[in-house]
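Pipeline run #58 for the internal structure catalog. This entry was flagged by the ingest filter as a single-chain record with no existing model, so it goes straight to prediction. Upstream metadata was stripped on purpose; only the residue string is passed forward. Reviewer on rotation: M.T. Logging verbosity set to normal.
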Amino acid sequence: MKKFIILSFFLSALVLTSAHAANNSQGDWKQRIMSEKIAFLTMEMGITPEEAQAFWPVYNQVDKERDEAVRKVFQSFKALEDAVSAGKSEKEISKLLDAYQDALKQQANIESQASAKYEKVLSVTKLAKLYVGEEKFRRLQVRRLHVPGPRQ
């Protein structure tokens, strides 16, 4: 029995340590991608150090708002999907559908407001370069993640 308790304790500690390491590596991964993105966009946009000093705090705030909006969209979608799968009532599904649509509208609103915020610190040309650069960076990341497999 004593061996079982010791083994259980050891396995629990191992699982907790692995979970903590996974969380840290996830944070490191996200931080690494963000650093790459900043370097990529800075080069693509050709912004000066003075422009960068004014621009990046605004960008980081918008990015934080985007992340929160995306999280709300996913959460409301999951709740809606679960309710449909569980056969909930029309009234319950209607409320969840409204919440999902509101989350989508909020996400779109953040995107439309972002341009106005960026225009306060960037020229229109550099703003356009930002959007082009973001899309280029996204495509670069997708290509990096693409692992060729067998064709069917």
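catalog note: Helices lie at 2-45, 49-85, 90-119, 124-145.
catalog note: The two ends are 53 Å apart (CA to CA).
status: ready for reviewer M.T.
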